[in-house]
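// run 5 | inverse folding | seed 20
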């Protein structure tokens, strides 16, 4: 099984720069949290009592004709209506054990998967003013829990690294949104990994960040009303069960409202689009074929993903901002 709900624990070992908040609010009781997921043969489920899945698929008409991504977009757009429907089903059914279902990426193939460059104050001397607002496109072909990232044999790649990210899901069409209204456009939050190919000197991030299978998503979407402060959430990751990243979203340079206001000046954000908010680089380590990687928003469920591919093992200690790509012999860009 590739997901579990972690026991409640303190924030021991939390990675925080001097100005980062490490106090955490007490979230709503587990029984009141709304976690929406996809499982088995494109069924829609909601978590009940922390360890059971209630199938709410029949609340959506013509589900098979619409396809999995459109179904989730419809739920997001019509959440007020669907939440009432789901609550009636939850009250009437006990569901099945979470351990007995196969989870999928909660979003099958979003229309846009955008990701912020850096965006975390993760070392001395960094301030929000040091960070330009900048984003890149990730492949929308998401890897779900229990599925595999593929690491390709790219000779110029120095190392692969999985970046654990706090990602928000757009709830309604957003264009030219003022910053003070921006959070009204968020539906919820979802854990993602941004698999990064380090050491390449290229004109774009297509190979470095945009390869197919290099975006992992899951275990589920947590609706925004269940996270009262998205800038005070602990994000953790593991490789082969060993702790890696452990940071608080309070270290985010450009907050979510600012990100939405900036992005919506240049692109239309639509329901079901997702935006990864960047990462806190301390704790990043290599990942190789045969490894497993896990991510968790603390106490809100952990997802595990597999890693495979024909890339030879690469274990270089690389830290973005400290190590920079070196041009190939003779200059120019790396050929891939």
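// decoded
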């Amino acid at each position: 099984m590739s997901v579990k709900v972690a026991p409640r624990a303190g924030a021991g070992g939390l990675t925080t720069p001097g100005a980062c908040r490490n106090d955490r609010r007490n979230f709503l009781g587990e029984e009141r949290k709304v976690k929406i997921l996809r499982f088995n043969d494109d069924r829609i489920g909601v978590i009940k009592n922390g360890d059971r899945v209630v199938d709410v698929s029949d609340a959506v008409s013509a589900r098979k004709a619409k396809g999995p991504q459109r179904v989730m977009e419809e739920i997001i757009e019509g959440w007020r209506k669907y939440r009432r429907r789901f609550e009636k089903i939850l009250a009437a059914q006990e569901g099945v054990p979470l351990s007995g279902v196969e989870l999928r990426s909660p979003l099958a193939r979003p229309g846009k998967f955008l990701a912020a460059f850096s965006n975390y104050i993760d070392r001395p001397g960094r301030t929000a003013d040091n960070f330009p607002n900048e984003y890149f496109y990730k492949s929308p072909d998401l890897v779900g829990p229990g599925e595999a990232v593929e690491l390709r044999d790219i000779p110029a790649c120095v190392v692969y690294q999985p970046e654990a990210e706090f990602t928000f899901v757009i709830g309604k069409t957003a264009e030219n949104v003022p910053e003070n209204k921006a959070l009204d456009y968020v539906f919820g939050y979802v854990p993602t990994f941004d698999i990064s190919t380090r050491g390449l000197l290229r004109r774009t991030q297509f190979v470095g960040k945009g390869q197919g299978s290099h975006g992992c998503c899951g275990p589920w979407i947590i609706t925004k009303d269940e996270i009262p402060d998205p800038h005070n959430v602990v994000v953790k990751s593991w490789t082969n069960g060993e702790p890696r990243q452990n940071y608080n979203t309070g270290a985010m340079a450009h907050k979510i409202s600012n990100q939405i206001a900036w992005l919506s000046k240049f692109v239309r954000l639509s329901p079901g689009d997702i935006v990864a908010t960047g990462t806190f680089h301390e704790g990043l380590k290599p990942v190789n074929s045969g490894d497993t990687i896990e991510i968790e928003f603390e106490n809100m469920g952990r997802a595990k993903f597999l890693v495979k591919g024909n890339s030879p093992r690469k274990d270089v200690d690389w830290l973005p901002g400290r190590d920079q790509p070196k041009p190939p012999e003779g200059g120019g860009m790396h050929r891939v």
